Amino acid sequence: MKAKKLLATLGMAAMFMCLPQQVSANNSLELKNVNGTIVLYENGKTATDKSGFVEVDGITVFVSNGTVLNVNGLFQDPKNVSDWYYLAEGRVQTQHTGLVLYDGAWFYVENGKLDTTTAGFVPYDGSLFYVGLGRIMTEVSGLAQDPNGSDWY
After folding, report:
1. What is the C-alpha to C-alpha distance for residues 88 and 13, in angstroms, rounded to an integer?
2. Dihedrals φ, ψ of 67, to 5°?
3. Per-residue pLDDT for 29 more than 80?
4. Beta strands at 91-92 and 84-88: parallel, antiparallel or unpaired
5. pLDDT band at residue 146, thresholds of 50, 70 and 90?
6. Non-local CB neighbours of 110 within 8 Å, separated by 6+ positions
7. Residue 17 pLDDT > 70
8. CB atoms < 10 A from the CB of 124, how many?
9. Cβ contact 21:91 at 8 Å
10. Which region holds residue 57: left if phi is over 0, alpha if psi is between -120 and 50, else beta?
């Protein structure tokens, strides 16, 4: 069911890039481990007014009322429903590019963000998979030419 919701958001005509909440030079944000929970602090106080994707020292985390949520997998940006990010323990995995499984379907992520612009064959676990609109195109069967080259598969 979640994959259907994700696929529905991919059909939106306008795709806007959602930037994490930016920290001004006057604000000091930091993450602290408080009894096993990662908490966001701003100017020495718990930042309970912060929710959504927040960047702290070059790391983007997903925060709800000042607490980093321990979520894994693809996660939709509540402020921009067309954007999905690949998270591990609430942290955007910017080093990850490749296929990820979400609710029974496979999606293509580049630098930690769902990529709906890549079309063609992508490698995964020793095989090639045809990707378009951010997902493996399971409805494609038969012979297909790589749109990024002259090879046929």
Report:
1. 29
2. -115, 130
3. yes
4. antiparallel
5. confident
6. 97, 118
7. no
8. 15
9. no
10. left
| Closest to 93 measured CA to CA, from 122, 121, 62, 118 | 62
93's tokens = 């995995």
- With 0-12 CB in 10 A as exposed, 13-18 as middle and 19+ as buried, what is 86? buried
Q: Is 1 helix (H, G, I), strand (E, B) or coil?
A: coil
Token readout for 110 is 């580049």
DSSP-derived secondary structure for 12-74 = -S---PPPPBPPPTT--EEEEEETTEEEEEETTEE-TT--EEEEETTEEEEEETTEE----EE
pLDDT of residue 134 exceeding 90: yes
The answer to whether the beta carbons of residues 58 and 66 sit under 8 Å apart is no
Write down the residue that tokens 């769902």 correspond to: 114
Cα dihedral 67, 68, 70, 71 in deg (nearest 10): 120
